[in-house]
Amino acid sequence: MSSPSPDALLGPADVRELAEALGVRPTKQRGQNFVIDANTVRRIVRTAQVRPDDVVVEVGPGLGSLTLALLEVADRVTAVEIDDVLAAALPATIAARMPARADRFALVHSDAMHVTELPGPAPTALVANLPYNVAVPVLLHMLDTFPSIERTLVMVQSEVADRLAAPPGSKVYGVPSVKANWFAEVKRAGAIGRNVFWPAPNVDSGLVSLTRRTEPIKTTASQREVFAVIDAAFAQRRKTLRAALAGWAGSAAVAEAALVAAGVSPQARGESLTVEEFARIAENKQ
User: Could you say which residues bind S-adenosyl-L-methionine here (predicted)?
Assistant: First the structure.
């Protein structure tokens, strides 16, 4: 494997030049903030523990800052980009800056939420700087759709990172925390400052590491059934589970029976439960 030249990655001037040449103005609507620091993207690749045999899927590659850093290390990289202009330009950027690795790159021009298959071998890792406004649904969709993804590292808004990695009982523990935990062990993996982006966002960013569970949660309930309980419990998070799950169960009495059968106090609240406990409640719905 030939090693790319040290200046293959994009610096601040490169990013601005590329954007200007393409007539790209980062949009808030798509949460676009381009990484302009080569050290940051290399740090992300290191933290993601990308290996030479990995097939990496990247969502929202933008101008290609992280894509190039991933191509330095991984066997293959498939990027999913929704933006017409960015998707059209990315293959040329890869070919120009890392020609020896260009045949290891594939582009899927699509909304990540609609992607159900990817070209080439099954992905083993997901590494992405996710747009703030769609980070959680995109992450959950990719983990659900591609069970071959073993390791994930996403850069998201700091507040979203806290939510994803929150343990039961935490103030910010909620639907994203529990659903992410259904698929993986989740933890915070670092912080990213605002000055490595262009334009600089108004919020800090955080890295979240997700390692796929080697054994799925043991339950006779389906994922859809378990997620329905999670959604109901947090839709009215201030209420006790007996009250919050009344609509889901059909009545408060039926909800109470399911909770008792699952070994969960009807007076508990959703924010205190583990994903395993939500699965037990789903199993005991009458």
Answer: 33, 35, 60, 81, 111, 129
> How many domains does the chain divide into?
2
Does 270 count as an annotated binding residue? no
Cβ(237)–Cβ(270) under 8 Å?
A: yes
Residue type, 143: L
Q: Is there a binding annotation on residue 33? A: yes
The reply to whether 284 sits in an annotated binding site is no
Please give the residue range of the domain that contains residue 254: 223-284
Per-residue pLDDT for 254 more than 70? yes
227 and 130 within one domain? no
Q: Are residues 142 and 96 in the same domain?
A: yes
Domain check: are 240 and 105 in the same one? no
The answer to the question of whether 81 is labelled as a binding residue is yes
Position 2 pLDDT exceeds 60:
no
33 vs 102, residue with greater confidence: 102
* Tokens 């980062």, located at residue: 26
Is the pLDDT at 32 greater than 70? The verdict is no
Return the CATH number at 250. 1.10.8.100
What CATH number is attached to the domain comprising 111? 3.40.50.150
- Domain presence at residue 240: yes
Q: What would the two tokens of residue 189 be? A: 């993996």
What is the band of 4 on the pLDDT scale with cuts at 50, 70, 90?
very low
Give me the long-range contacts of 136-142 (CB less than 8 A, separation at least 24). Answer: 136/160, 136/163, 136/164, 136/176, 137/113, 138/59, 138/112, 138/113, 139/164, 139/180, 139/210, 140/176, 140/179, 140/180, 140/183, 141/112, 141/113, 141/115, 142/57, 142/59, 142/112, 142/115
Residue 162, marked binder: no
193 marked ligand binding residue = no
pLDDT band at 133 (very low <50, low <70, confident <90, very high): confident
Strand partners, 55: 76
Q: Which residue has the tokens 């590494």?
A: 127
